[in-house]
Amino acid sequence: MKIIVTGKGGVGKTSITAVLAHILSSSGYSVLAIDTDSVPNLAQSLGIPYDKASKIVPLSKNDKLVEERTGAKPGESWGMLFSLTPKVDDLVDNYGIKISENLRVLVVGSIDSSKEGCLCPAIALAKAFLRHVLLKRNEVVIVDSEAGAEVFGRGLAEKFDLMLCISEPTLKSMSIARKLIKMARELDIKKNILIINKVTDIENAVSLYERVFGDEDIPYHMVRLDNQLYELEVKGLGVDNLGPNSIIFQDINRLCKTICYLHKLKV
Ligand SMILES: Nc1ncnc2c1ncn2[C@@H]1O[C@H](COP(=O)(O)OP(=O)(O)OP(=O)(O)O)[C@@H](O)[C@H]1O
Ligand SMILES: [Mg+2]
């Protein structure tokens, strides 16, 4: 199962990716969590201490690796030929960081060329790696993405089985989610679920959903606001410190059951 998590800034993509990755891996699945944010922080959310997490070099910022694999130095590639099919099949083993028995995280960095300037070889390497992971690896893959699925482009985006589009319970956030889901459909991502996160008033969230998505058939799932998450972040701790009775854990556990049911997996 290959999942992409999208949504506008600050809605809870990383937190939800991290909790979902922990729940799926503790259910016995091998999970690879991937961070494609230009300011990556998924590793820390998953439980790697700040001092260690802040030293991780994203694949697309690893100039030596990019040059070794693509044959071109980032930033010096104008007019140069570089490989669009670099060797990537060893990267999970060499750059994946173990969080627990069944869970690894790999920090790729942004694949959005408009954000990264002219780093074409770096983005070529990152995309080749993602293609490999989506096509060849057997793990459950969860990608925390800062931009929408469109940066993955055709040939890659449709390899995702599921997009979780995260939204806050506001009109603005849901309108953006609606646009992202429309784009994901155009890119042939097979299933989309809207996650309404940080919910405090369920009735209000439903009425906003009906207003924005009334004419569409998009399943939604609510995740309530959980102050425990904030308390952990203040202490610099990851979601691995959430108890199984925490609100967000319970709500994402229900989401996990829905996802596994949809994909005929046991949980
Ligand atoms: N269900 C929730 N309850 C309480 N706080 C939450 C919840 N979900 C997310 N948050 C908080 O919202 C903030 C943003 O969350 P997070 O970093 O996961 O969002 P993001 O979408 O990944 O942000 P970015 O776009 O910057 O990558 C964090 O402080 C997080 O603790
Ligand atoms: Mg994030």
In words, what does this structure look like?
With 267 residues, this protein is an alpha/beta fold. The chain has a domain at 2-48 and 102-112 and 137-262: P-loop containing nucleotide triphosphate hydrolases (Rossmann fold), CATH 3.40.50.300. The protein is built from 11 helices and 8 strands. It has an 8-stranded mixed beta sheet, sandwiched between helices. The longest helix is centred in the middle third of the chain and has 17 residues, at 120-136. Bound molecules: adenosine-5'-triphosphate (ATP) and magnesium ion (MG). Adenosine-5'-triphosphate binds at residues 7, 9-15, 37, 146, 197-198, 223, 225-226, 229-230, 233, 248.
Intertermini distance: 13 Å
User: Which molecules are bound in this entry?
Assistant: adenosine-5'-triphosphate, magnesium ion
Give the CATH architecture of the domain at 2-48 and 102-112 and 137-262: 3-Layer(aba) Sandwich
Top CATH class of the domain at 2-48 and 102-112 and 137-262: Alpha Beta
Percent of residues in beta strands: 15-25%
Q: Unreliable stretches, pLDDT < 50, 5 or more residues?
A: none
CATH superfamily placement of the domain at 2-48 and 102-112 and 137-262:
P-loop containing nucleotide triphosphate hydrolases
How many β-strand stretches?
Answer: 8
User: Please, how many helices?
Assistant: 11
CATH fold topology of the domain at 2-48 and 102-112 and 137-262? Rossmann fold
